[in-house]
Task: structure prediction
Amino acid sequence: MHVDRYERYWMWAATGMLALFLGAIVLTAIAGSAHPASHVETVDPETLHVTGEFATPGVTVRPDGGVTVVMRAEFYVFRPEVIRVPAGRPVTFRITSPDVLHGFQIVGTNVNLTVAPGYVSEVTTTFARPGEYLVVCNEYCGLAHHLMQGKVIVEAAP
Ligand code: CUA
Result:
C-alpha cells in the first residue's frame, strides 16, 4: 500500500505525540501519587442536613489514634471551615455536597477530591509535620466560587 511521504511523517508525529502525552500522564500520576477515585458511597443530598453524619460535620478521633473529618462542601463554604488534625496520624476526610459539584483540594498536598451531590468522597492522608494548609474549591460552582476556601491546621500530636 502506498502512503504518501508527508502523510507518513504526520502519522508518526501523531503517534509520537500520543505516546508523549500518555507518558506525561503516567509519569505525573506516579510522581504526584495521584490515584483514580476508588470509593463509591452514596448519600441523599436532600436529607443530609438533618440526618446522618453530615448533619453534624466535624473532627472525631478514632480508637486507633487517627481522625475522621466529616465535611460538607456547599454554596460557598466548607463546613467546618477550619479543621484541626494531628500530625503523623492517618486523617480520613469524608465529604459530600448538598447542592452542586465542588472541589476539595488541600494546597501543597496530593489531596484533591471532586465532591458530587449524592456521593461521599473519601481520602485518607497523613500530614508529616505541623503547619497550616489552604483548602480551595477547584470546581467552578457559582458566582462566589473563588471565595470558597477553608483551612487545615495540623497540630503536633499529643
Ligand atoms: Cu465550590 Cu467552587
Remarks:
- Residues 13 and 27 are 21 Å apart (CA to CA).
- Helices lie at 5-31.
- The chain is about 15% helix and 35% strand.
- The longest strand covers residues 67-74.
